Amino acid sequence: MKGIICCLLALFCFSCATIKTIDPPLDHVNISYKGKKSYCKKIPRIYSGISYNACLFYGEPSNVTKIDSFNGIPFVFIDSAFSVIADTIVLPYTVVSQVNKGDIRVN
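RESULT FIELD:
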């Protein structure tokens, strides 16, 4: 039982993008990295965590040479792996939200 609780806790701690986009205030979310904004205008609610992370790569050019990472693996890739799982778990909710509310506005 402890193992399951630890796994769920890790899942929701690392799937930060899913948590940010599951029900954002005013149906709006800011996506930027090191002060550089994304060019994305909206993202779907279905698999929004993955869409959020993809939008991190589609933005203003950056002179950032050091990317935040853990053992050489960028955090965005770690977060994406957990976001796939979290997005799948909340899929019944996000499908209904997508139909009722539409896409999430970005920046």
